[in-house]
Amino acid sequence: MHTTVDAWLTRRGDRVTVLITNHAQPDLEIRSEEIELRLLGARAPRGAVIRRVDASHANPKAVWEQIGSPTYPTAETLELLESASAIGTAAQPFQQLSDVTQINFTVPAHALAVVRLDYEPPAPAGTPV
Predict the structure, then answer these.
(1) Mean pLDDT for the stretch of residues 91-95
(2) Which of 22, 34, 114, 125 could pair covalently with 107 via S-S, beta carbons 3.0-4.6 A apart?
(3) Boundaries of each Glycosyl hydrolases family 39 N-terminal catalytic domain copy (predicted)?
């Protein structure tokens, strides 16, 4: 059990979204955590993507510090910082083992990841398969 990791799952239509966070209070120990996400009784998704906010993703403060922490950023610097704050989307590999979907990834300390699985809509009742 990871005392610093929390997860929330939502389903809307043909999409499942899982939010994973890895946070702790400042005086508590924290480290990167290997996540093994298993969805039981699941049909195979048509695809999965991951979005991250951590030291390497969607982190304009790191870019601001790398360019010298300007007190009065130029318009060009503001564009750079806005670009650095964008939350990108990347394909996320998964395994489908019978009726279990398994996804493995790492969540660094003080970070979050959102995994989205998209499914084909089920055939209407009475439709031949």
Answers:
(1) 97
(2) 22
(3) 16-86
